[in-house]
Amino acid sequence: MSDLLATIQRESELVMQFAALLKEEQGALQRGEAAALPGINQRKGTLANEISSMSGLRNALLAGAGCPPERAGMEEWIAKHPADAGVRQAWTILLAQAAEARQLNELNGKLIGIRLQATQEALAILTQQARQASLYGPNGQSSPLTGLRIIDSA
Length: 154
Prior knowledge:
Elements: H1 3-31, H2 37-64, H3 70-80, H4 85-133
Helix pairs in contact: 1-2, 1-4, 2-3
């Protein structure tokens, strides 16, 4: 097995694990389990670093073969080695997994936006209610209560 094939396969395994974490994150967001998110984010960071390392190794292997980095380099390498079906297949799988991870990440971003908006709306309502129920404003000065009379006039 070539070093390039092994590197792409390892990168593919890591991307698959990353997608699984994104699905776990999605579930936590849907259930409103905010306490689970920091641990998931930490694991995502670790996996992202490992994926980046594998991508760097792949790019170094491509450079050693006289090819540019990233997708263009892989396409050039595959064109130069048409008989190496294993690398071509592994690369196709990696691209599909990366596309799935990207879609999951975008969806999670939208879910986070929805949760953030709901939280901001709830805070606005609570802040407004607190201002209306307060006898004194944030500056320490008395504030009138709308619709309520503390002392009835005779």
